[in-house]
Amino acid sequence: MKTPITVSITGAAGQIGYALLFRIASGFVFGPDQPVNLRLIEIEPGLPALNGVMMELDDCAFPLLNEVIGTADLDEGFKDANWCLLVGSVPRKAGMERADLLGINGKIFTGQGQAIARNAAKDVRVLVVGNPCNTNALIAMNNAAGVPADRFFAMTRLDENRAKSQLARKAGVHQSKVTNLCIWGNHSATQYPDFTNARIDGRPVTEVITDREWLEGEFITTVQQRGAAVIKARGLSSAASAANAALDTVKSLITPTPEGDWHSVAVCSDGSYGIEKGIMASMPIRTRGDGTWEVVQGVPVNDFSQGRIDLTIAELLEEREAVKDLIPA
Ligand code: NAD
Ligand code: LMR
């Protein structure tokens, strides 16, 4: 029997938490022979609901679920964590941009970054889902003294999945045929879903979908605005698809990336593609499945793409400026 892996999840009683926990406990993410400990973190008012979720976890009798702890104490919550999924934070409502949440949510991530540094396992990895996720991840990373920057990620996989579905629908093919889709920059309305390098069945998307006006216009805006469209339709922000994307992200980071492909996740920029060092920007990533990852180099960036990337990076720099008080010098 393998040693259990410990996964800490904040906001565990929320919508995304509810769609996330049971799939992790079932073995879907870490595999059918990997036992899992869950450390579920909520704020005090969320603890009664969390208790109900824990009752439901009990009621599943999952063979791989080793231990479940529910707590509002960050030290207990992040103890020995190998993976931290930082979901807990307030979602936006209709009419808001994600950056409007910075003032409300940003400060959550200082204490969480510090508690991760104090308590988590040496190999800890942190995926931030709570919005605005890139800048919240930047705050957590900068407050987690001693934890290497390459352990922090912010989620843009939902945007990648959305973009793949839109392209597949337009081309009349199954979404599994779409590869090499990179989301550049921020998980926000400035993100750039890069159709210029995406492929359908191995062919450039621009050869399969010749409607350039659609690619440069409606396609991009649909992906950028999809979160808002779901909020408008559901009255609540996306949850099952967000949880699914979080699980896709973790799986992609622990599994070798298929030859020639890449996946999207925001990482701490090393200056690749001229993106300012130290900000959390989404870019094309490959992994060997051994805990390391690299930015895919040499992806062509034409003038159109560069203009879009510049816009979304400028927004990330503005967000960093807005939270500079939460980032230790
Ligand atoms: P929700 O309101 O249903 O749940 C959030 C939970 O977090 C609540 O149970 C709340 O009690 C808890 N919480 C709040 N502050 C906390 C703290 N400091 N520590 C621990 N728990 C805390 O919200 P949701 O729909 O699950 O969404 C959660 C976040 O994920 C939102 O910020 C949302 O915008 C974001 N989100 C991101 C993406 C993405 O693609 N990156 C996609 C969807 C949603
Ligand atoms: C999403 O993209 O669905 C989430 O970030 C929620 C939101 O506020 O759009």
TrEMBL record:
Pfam families: Ldh_1_C, Ldh_1_N. Substrate binds at R92, R98, N131, R162. GO terms for biological process: malate metabolic process; tricarboxylic acid cycle. This is Malate dehydrogenase. It is an enzyme of class 1 (oxidoreductase). NAD(+) binds at G11, A12, A13, G14, Q15, I16, G17, N105, Q112, V129, G130, N131. Keywords: NAD, Oxidoreductase, Tricarboxylic acid cycle. It comes from Luteolibacter yonseiensis. It comes from the Bacteria. Gene3D superfamilies: Lactate dehydrogenase/glycoside hydrolase, family 4, C-terminal (3.90.110.10), NAD(P)-binding Rossmann-like Domain (3.40.50.720). The lineage of its organism: Bacteria, Pseudomonadati, Verrucomicrobiota, Verrucomicrobiia, Verrucomicrobiales. The active site is at H187. One of its GO terms (molecular function) is L-malate dehydrogenase (NAD+) activity. Belongs to the LDH/MDH superfamily. MDH type 2 family. The gene is mdh. It catalyses: (S)-malate + NAD(+) = oxaloacetate + NADH + H(+). PANTHER family: MALATE DEHYDROGENASE (PTHR23382). Residues 7-151 form the Lactate/malate dehydrogenase N-terminal domain. Catalyzes the reversible oxidation of malate to oxaloacetate. The keyword Oxidoreductase applies. Residues 156-325 form the Lactate/malate dehydrogenase C-terminal domain. Its EC number is 1.1.1.37. The keyword NAD applies.
